[in-house]
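Re-run with default settings, no changes from the original entry. Doing this only to confirm the output is reproducible before filing.
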Amino acid sequence: MTVNTINLRSTKTLTDYVRAVDRMRTLAKQLSELSKLEAKLRPEVLEAIGERREIAVRGQVRILEPSVKESIGQEDAERTVEVFRSLGLPLNQRSPEYVAPASFSKLVKDGIVPEELIRRTSETIIVFH
């Protein structure tokens, strides 16, 4: 009969690694919870600050302002590839072909991409100064 033994001893590196990963998991969970809380509070805060509001928090003056954050995306990825190919615009050649988001955004900002390929979304966020 063969008996396998398990070595439960750790090294400083292994212990530090496991602690770091455990802490990352905890922080990721906290970030998720805080993001949900921020999203829940945002409408009421936007209403309260109007165009701009100065408040004191922990003895520091903070300025809160609403700001519209716009995002640009591809309405239909397959259609975008077809149009880009026909216009001679750059495509990523990996299989399957696609238009890289950064390239797409740059070409949109340069006014090259036809409007029907663009999906625009906006969200009002709160900026702190």
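The chain is about 45% helix and 25% strand. The radius of gyration is 25 Å.
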